[in-house]
Amino acid sequence: MSQFHFDPSTYDTLIRAEVPAYEELEDRVAQATAGVEAARILDLGAGTGETARRVRALHPAAAIVALDVSQAMLERIDLDAVESVAQPLQAPLPSGPFDLVVSALAVHHLDGSEKRDLFARVRDVLRPGGRFVLGDVVVAEREVAPLSEGYDKPDRAADQLDWLRSAGFDARIDWEHDDLALIVADLPSTPPGFGFAADVRVRFAETDAQGIAHNSNYFVWFEVARVEHLERYAGGYQRLRDLGIEALVLETHVRYLQPARFDDRLRIHARCVDIKGARFRYEYAVERNGEVIADGWTAHATVDAASFRPTRVPSWLIQALSSSSSLWSSSS
């Protein structure tokens, strides 16, 4: 299919001739976005805008970011409120969050490892509760689409489902026809695996001049959830201190997806993961009214309180967290 990619003047005619189910595939990609409230959409491998036109019809108020390796192809898109980005799919994606990410007949140009990497990057720019719709050529018993060796690199639809699920999506195949498939991948509103949460309320003193919660407060809320988690499952942080052990913070990270405001009721989900030797890690998801507005993690180490030398996480603590079913393998 490489001949289509570099000739904008003949692309639309040629691809319809060579891919008989092209129109149906494009229609189904657009239809699969229905039901998602979308203000911002990313179109990967946008070409001349066929997918964007169909998706815009269902989401007339949405802004669209159209990404394609060919500037000449992007210049043929004749829609309003479209930002064009000329770059390959392997490059860093435009900054999110997006409500929808769509792609038709583009991702098959990537090999398997590049697809897995792309799916993880799509997850990172998609808001929780958002959707990724992928319509593309796949490996199948009956091959219809003309492929160019070394340029077209389709994989089995089942393999791509596995890669999407490994990236954190709820993924399914919605349609198959010969060597074409439509995959719909939803990003859960609350990441799976969280069995504990602490509730906080945004105080006026925690907001800044813009009227939103200051970024530093998220680390305080993480600590609130972490301390309550330890109290529920392991007898509290003070128990560690009574045994002459301190738990130090080594690293912190937070990803801001939506702003929190004064008087918002937030639920801070927390789980302990990756306990190894003297180190352990907590992961968090900040939820408001069923939507995750931020997530992050903190890395910790246990040390002797007197010497500050590393000391292994006590076995009773590991057992307590494991028996509570709150110890999970990290997906990060």
Secondary structure: elements and pairs:
Blueprint: H1 2-5, H2 8-18, H3 22-31, E1 40-44, H4 50-58, E2 63-68, H5 71-74, E3 82-86, E4 98-104, H6 112-125, E5 126-137, H7 157-166, E6 170-177, E7 180-186, E8 197-201, H8 217-234, H9 237-242, E9 245-256, E10 265-276, E11 279-288, E12 291-304, H10 315-323, E13 327-328
Parallel strand pairs: 1-2, 1-4, 2-3, 4-5, 10-13
Antiparallel strand pairs: 5-7, 6-7, 8-10, 9-12, 10-11, 11-12
Helix pairs in contact: 3-4
How would you describe what is shown here?
Helices cover 29% and strands 32% of the residues. The protein folds into two domains: 185 residues, Vaccinia Virus protein VP39 (Rossmann fold, 3-Layer(aba) Sandwich); 132 residues, Thiol Ester Dehydrase, Chain A.
Strand content: 25-35%
Number of strand elements: 13
Overall geometric form: elongated
Radius of gyration: 24 Å
Low-confidence stretches: 325-332
SS class: alpha/beta
CATH class of the largest domain: Alpha Beta
How many strands, which pairing sense, and closed or not: the largest β-sheet?
Answer: 7 strands, mixed
CATH topology tier name of the largest domain: Rossmann fold
The H-and-E topology, N to C, reads as: HHHEHEHEEHEHEEEHHEEEEHE
Give the total of domains.
2
Which second-level CATH architecture of the largest domain applies? 3-Layer(aba) Sandwich
Provide the helix percentage.
Answer: 25-40%
